[in-house]
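Changelog-adjacent note: as of this version, every example in the card shows the full chain rather than a window. The one below runs 147 residues end to end.
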Amino acid sequence: MRFRYPLQKIVDLKGSEKSMAEWEYAASLGRLKEEEERLRELDAERAAARERIESSAASGVTLAELTSLQHYLDVLDGKVRRQTEGVEAAEALVRLRRSKLAEKSIDEKVWQNARDKALRIHRHEWLIKQQNELDEIATVRAASARG
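Full-length structure tokens:
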């Protein structure tokens, strides 16, 4: 007696949805890592620019050069602010994808548990049927041995 779950396509769909949510979560983690790496690069570039300004000021450069270096530092500060916003957006996306993955995991588990329960019931009914058949065979043998 073969088990055939009538809602198997739904179980399969829920598994596929969970797999897609896992992929989206992994992709969002990758994006976050890229955004954080770019922010680290900008921070390093900003620190180097600040150091150049300090060393240039100490060595006696022209005001135009110092102004140019300060302008460059201001541009870097703006890039750092925007990149920080990018990191925050990526973190928000990671949180969203994580919650979606948790939701899909729970949904899949509910459907998988329903399938497992139906399988247990099916096996139990099959065992009862087998036992009834064995009991009937034993009864027939016992009756024919007497008669």
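Structural remarks: The helical segments are 8-59, 63-146.
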